[in-house]
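The instructor's notes for this session suggest beginning with a concrete chain rather than abstract definitions. Hand out the sequence below and ask the class to guess, before any prediction is shown, which regions might be ordered.
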Amino acid sequence: MQTYKILTLSSLISAYSLSVLHFQSLKLSETQSFLIGISGAPTYFLSSSPKPVKMISKHRPTKSILEFSFIFSVVAQTSLHLLTLHYVMQEVGVKYTPEKDLNINNDLEFIPTFLNTVVFLFSIVSQNCIFLFNHAGEPFMESLQKKPKYFKALIFPIVIG
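After discussion, reveal the predicted structure:
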């Protein structure tokens, strides 16, 4: 269930981020897309290969993605990320973007702007937040406290972004 939730949220946030850029006639550079993918790959690997806990819990995980708690969690987290991106674009991106950057059309070649850098940083931070807050942890898996390197790898981009 953890993997389904992470993939669902990551896909929705990525699609919305790219549509925001497209709406502004912007795009991510190849380097930015590469960095998003490279930063996500080890995180996916580390989140999908945790050690199980030594004792079986009395609590049982959800059995289906169609349970209310799963759907509510995905909808709430997606809403939070989308509202945050909207706020960031309106309050930070548009206010502090130079006038010459507002008239750029990136259809032919990439031109770096403040707005696409904001969306790039948002994508990195939201990707790590998704992993951090959807780590199942105990009673089914090891908690993040027992995996300090993985925890630091998740926190570092959030603090920097």
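Then share the key points. The chain is about 65% helix and 0% strand. The two ends are 28 Å apart (CA to CA).
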